[in-house]
Amino acid sequence: MAASKGPVQPKFTYELTDPMEVKIRKIATQIYGADDAIFAPAAKAAMKRMGEIGLGDLPVCMAKTQKSFSDDEKKIGRPSGFNVTVRGLEVSSGAGFVVPLLGDMLRMPGLPEVPSAEHMKIDGTGRIEGLS
Prior knowledge:
The protein is of the alpha+beta class. It has helices at 20-31, 41-52, and strands spanning 36-39, 83-92, 97-102, 121-122, 128-129. The strands form two sheets. The chain has a three-stranded mixed beta sheet.
């Protein structure tokens, strides 16, 4: 049994000291099965700036479609023969990681483009209209 062998040391995909681009490429190729990661100019600029202000050693948490290991929701599952496109990066400084944004996806899936609150009204008596 695996449990009887005792604790296992984790094997990390990248070192925290790896450059941000290397971290992202390692996740894309070793975990997602991509051939490579392509970086848009905005992503390259963000990586450069993060390095300059001391955020280059932060861990990475990729944001991509939940339907595929690629950045294309039409490529269901774990496809092969694809590249992921990193269009930008965000820093989650409170949580302490960087979020590469892959492909064309919403950052908050499941939320409508127009919030329901825009259709709600409260009259002078406190009666609420527009709830569904």
